[in-house]
Design a protein that fits this description.
Pfam families: DPPIV_N, Peptidase_S9. With 793 residues, this protein is α+β, with helices and mostly antiparallel strands. The two termini are 37 Å apart. Helices cover 21% and strands 33% of the residues. 39% of the residues are buried.
Length: 793
């Protein structure tokens, strides 16, 4: 009987998937589009860099479909692409490193050793030969020395003489306690010394020896015990008089989760530690200054940061927890990040981030006293974020010194969009450098210090171009011209651009362009396979529609050439929340893009919305989900569905929805809270209860469960499972260490207890959050297609 049941199950499963293949009217199959993308689509060039002399462009590529990608080089003089041999690769300078003032030399590490490169001649000089691993080399003291980190301490090396000097003396662990006797033991020791001359003589000799050793001792840096903290970001001031450092301390009481692996090499289940949950204690960063001349530590006075006692607005929903007296309000925890030293003066700028991520301060640091002075404060009652701004606890964002040596440039969402600003450290005057309803990212100052280069979506929210602008603001000159996505790497002399470009239906390729507005971009690589190119991949329509609150929503729309009257539709919900997918470049959701082509071939209209919380549309859009995930981000899907019915001949009874991660969460909220809009949904690797997700992401948007329970209750699908009416498919990897398997198991038990019948759960034993195996992808999307075919037609 048992064999019969198993055989029947296998036969039924095979039959069901065979039926899916028969239902599919597209020339594409799910098996085809879900196979290894390197073999089916091809491998796009990636990891672009220039040779130091600007003669070659290096990139990772795999046109021959080898097991692994390899390093390739395009030579500008010969206009040829060649695979870089392993022997040549070993001799290439490290990508990271530092240049001297005139960029004639570069210091870098290779296998932990320091090398000095003369860029004009191409000759290298090896400065160290050891089995240790030096890191973070940089030119200091007017390019006369090279500083580097080794074993959590800062050293300098003289490139001419090879002399290495240790500048800091950080020691892990704690200082040994004084073992001097006390009480009864001390009384006995004193008695012994009084009674026996030999003990008195020995003690005198010992003290004399210690005094001589102290007098003969070579001066060394103050020994600083770091306990269990990790030393980070050690850097030398321009004059060499001060050294800044940071001490990173992990949260000792944060309870980690674990993930059970069932399919293992050992044959036994194995537990692997994973992240903690939101609301757990957080790591902290403490910054300090070492006064080299006086061999002492200088503490930084964080109490000089304004607004440390400012309470967030959401606490007004909890009057019982509001402090009754100002004296009861404690300073918020703040991490100091950086610093950014001035090029010539012992003056530094640090970025302070509150651990609740509602404030970012840019502060001027006086290393002599440890005093802080405010340069700029950005407060956001939702959370600090946006392109170039940092946030998330441990990032300074993009920041640098202006050519005048007195001002620093930085990003801020002060205007509602991430733009560039500069503030003078002496006068405190702030200057707006860019403005408009678009976002700026990847900013840098040109070699001649006269211009800014940056990426902006000024032309369209879904198009990114390289722009050039006078360094103190002014006219923006668009350098790239190809519509879509443009990832630009400037040549060392800034005469050329290496561009990784893609379009909605064309994967990323490498182009070369002169650094001139309107110059032609020449395609260097052709990476897609013949099989992939045989299909006529659709360019989606880029549309906008009005949400119920009047906001303009951007989306991709895919339609059949001859859509049937009252036909079916599927809404795809991208993941991550803060991500953009209604753009004009090749999507990271390329499997889903191909699946949408299959759906359209089968008569579906497909809508892909950049809902509230998505990237690319400014601060208000970014924070539109604050304290209510499943609010405006869900209503944008509902409004999109209504638009399909009103404008595109879609039947109101034939609309499905699907997505993964955050998209899976929205799918669950849609199926539980909007059953009259969505007949079917496929929720993949879904968050079902935000109180069980990680801290860094969740606390920004919903605060913490203890402090803001209202936000968690109305944002978690598990609380609304009783509303399920349509047909629900849930898929989840069992070794997901991001949105963990426990999430979907808890929701499953809830659905069982509620007596719901029209749902199913498919589990994938070897998959984590991002699926890897083509067989898993194929199985998952066969199920999704089958769901829509059976419930929407």
């Amino acid at each position: 009987m048992r064999h019969f049941i198993l055989s029947f199950f296998i036969l039924f499963t095979f039959s069901a998937f065979s039926q899916v293949s028969q239902l599919n009217k597209s020339p594409l199959s799910i098996e085809t589009i879900m196979q290894d993308p390197a073999k089916w689509i091809g491998t796009s060039p990636s990891d672009i860099s220039w040779s130091e002399d600007g003669a070659k462009i290096y990139f990772q590529w795999n046109p021959e479909q080898d097991t692994l990608e390899s390093l390739y080089a395009y030579e500008l003089s010969s206009e040829e692409i060649e695979k870089v041999s392993l022997d040549e690769k070993k001799t290439l300078p490290g990508r990271r490193g530092d240049y001297n003032s005139d960029k004639s030399k570069k210091v870098f590490t290779r296998n932990g050793n320091l090398f000095l490169l003369d860029i004009k001649s191409g000759k290298e000089k090896q400065l160290t030969a050891w089995f240790d691993r030096a890191s973070s080399p940089e030119f200091v003291l007017g390019d006369s020395k090279i500083a580097f980190t080794l074993d959590n301490n800062l050293f300098t090396i003289d490139p001419e003489t090879g002399l290495i000097t240790q500048l800091t003396n950080f020691v892990s662990g704690n200082e040994k306690k004084d073992k001097s006797s006390t009480g009864q033991a001390k009384w006995l020791e004193d008695q012994q010394k009084e009674l026996f001359v030999v003990l008195q003589e020995r003690e005198a000799k010992s003290k004399a020896r210690e005094n001589r050793q102290e007098m003969e001792k070579v001066d060394e840096p103050l020994k600083v015990y770091t306990g269990k903290k990790r030393v980070m970001d050690i850097s030398l001031s321009p004059t060499g008089d001060y050294i800044s450092y940071s001490l990173y301390e992990r949260a000792a009481d944060a309870k980690a989760t674990s993930v059970t692996h069932h399919v293992t090499e050992s044959g036994y289940t194995e537990e692997r530690n994973a992240r903690a949950k939101v609301g757990s204690p957080q790591a902290s960063v403490e910054m300090g200054i070492f006064d080299v001349k006086n061999n002492k530590l200088i503490s930084i006075d964080k109490t000089q940061i304004p607004g440390l006692k400012d309470l967030p607005d959401y606490l007004s929903d909890y009057p019982e927890s509001m402090p009754k007296e100002d004296e009861e309000i404690e300073d918020r925890d703040v991490n100091l990040l950086g610093p950014l030293w001035n090029e010539t003066e012992d003056m530094a700028v640090v970025v302070a981030l509150s651990q609740d991520n509602k404030d970012r301060w840019i502060m001027l640091l006086n290393p002599e006293t440890g005093d802080l002075e405010l340069l700029d404060r950005q407060r956001d009652e939702a959370w600090i974020g946006g392109p170039g701004i940092g946030g998330w606890g441990m990032s300074t964002g993009s920041i640098g010194w202006m050519p005048d040596g007195e001002s620093v440039w930085f990003h801020s969402e002060e205007s509602g969009y991430s733009h560039l600003y500069a503030v003078n450290c002496k006068t405190k005057k702030k200057t707006t450098l860019t403005k408009g309803e678009f976002e700026v990212s990847e900013a840098s100052i040109s070699n001649d210090k006269k211009s800014f280069y940056f990426i902006a979506n000024k032309q369209h929210p879904g198009v990114k171009h390289l722009y050039k602008m006078p360094v103190w603001g002014g006219k923006l000159t668009q350098i790239t011209s190809m519509e879509g996505g443009n990832e630009v790497t400037l040549s060392p002399d800034e005469k050329y651009l290496a561009i990784r470009h893609s379009e909605a239906n064309k994967p990323w390729e490498l182009y070369l362009q002169e650094n001139k507005a309107g110059a032609e971009a020449i395609q260097l690589t052709h990476s897609t396979t013949d099989a992939f190119n045989e299909y006529d991949w659709r360019t989606p329509e880029y549309i906008t529609f009005n949400a119920a609150d009047g906001s303009e929503v951007h989306a991709r729309l895919y339609r059949p050439e001859s859509p049937e009257q009252n036909g079916p539709a599927v809404i795809f919900v991208h993941g991550a929340g803060y991500l953009q997918n209604a753009h004009k470049w090749w999507s990271s959701y390329f499997r889903e893009y191909q699946f949408h082509n299959i759906l359209v071939d089968n008569g579906y209209t497909v809508l892909d919305i950049d809902y509230r919380g998505s990237a690319g549309y400014g601060r208000d859009w970014r924070t539109g989900i604050y304290r209510w995930m499943g609010g405006l981000d869900l209503s944008d899907q509902v409004d999109g569905a209504k638009m399909l019915v009103d404008k595109y001949n879609v039947s109101a009874d034939k609309i499905g929805i699907y997505g993964g991660s955050y998209g899976g969460f929205i799918t669950l909220m849609a199926m539980f809270n909007e059953p009259e809009t969505f007949s079917a949904g496929a929720a993949l690797r879904s968050v079902t209860d935000w109180a069980h997700y990680n801290h860094g992401y969740t606390a920004n948007i919903l605060n913490t469960p203890v402090q803001d329970s209202i936000a968690y209750v109305k944002s978690s699908p598990i609380n609304f499972a009783d509303g399920l009416q349509g047909n629900l498919l849930m898929c989840h990897g069992m070794v997901d260490d991001n949105v963990q398997f426990q999430d979907i198991v808890r929701l499953t038990q809830r659905l069982i207890e509620l007596g719901k019948e029209n749902w199913e759960l498919a589990v994938f034993p070897v998959e984590a959050h991002g699926f890897v195996e083509p067989s898993s992808w194929t199985d998952e999307y066969r199920r999704i297609f089958k769901l829509f075919e059976e419930t929407l037609k």
